[in-house]
Design a protein that fits this description.
Helix content: under 10%
Pfam family, one: DUF6590
Number of domains: 1
Number of helices: 1
Shape: globular
Distance between the termini: 30 Å
Protein name: DUF6590 domain-containing protein
Organism: Ophiobolus disseminans
């Protein structure tokens, strides 16, 4: 079972979409599924925001191919730095993030890339019966920030 403010990674599969199906993500992680549709699979990182019984509400962590929050057309106001280092990584050139960074106490040798950004404005339901690999826990004095930023992004 996932627990509040846990950071984990898992295999995530979603529809590939209609723009350049099979080519849009420079990857071979595409498969053909029911009705001859394309699906895309990758390892994704998440933070648990709320436990909802048989599933948890989670928000994604992404590097945007190392670009952090400089990725074009990104809602920068919904993003923040998340890290496993002792001190917060320096913002990338051109980044204008305003939220306090979130530190994760990692398990064993797990780490997050310095360009990792958490998206408070995009919630996913992750069922508790899927296999996940624990990365660590958000440190105690940063947990209220996750809740606050998530609530604010969902109310916009």
């Amino acid at each position: 079972m996932l627990i509040g403010k846990q950071v984990f990674k898992m295999l995530w599969t979603e529809p590939a979409g209609q723009v350049n199906p099979g080519k849009s993500r420079n990857s071979t992680h595409f498969s053909t599924v029911l009705l001859n549709e394309q699906a895309y699979s990758e390892i994704r990182y998440f933070v648990v925001v709320r436990n909802k019984g048989s599933f948890s509400q989670c928000i994604p962590i992404q590097t945007y191919k190392g670009r952090g929050a400089t990725k074009p057309n990104l809602n920068v106001d919904d993003h923040g730095v998340i890290h496993t280092s002792k001190t917060a990584p320096v913002l990338l050139p051109g980044e204008q993030l305003t939220k306090y960074s979130i530190r994760v106490q990692p398990d064993e040798a797990e780490t997050l890339e310095p360009s990792s950004r958490v998206n408070y404005g995009k919630a996913y339901a992750v069922e508790h019966n899927v296999k996940v690999l624990n990365i660590g826990m958000v440190v105690e004095n940063h947990r209220y920030l996750i809740e606050s930023y998530f609530r604010a992004a969902m109310c916009d």
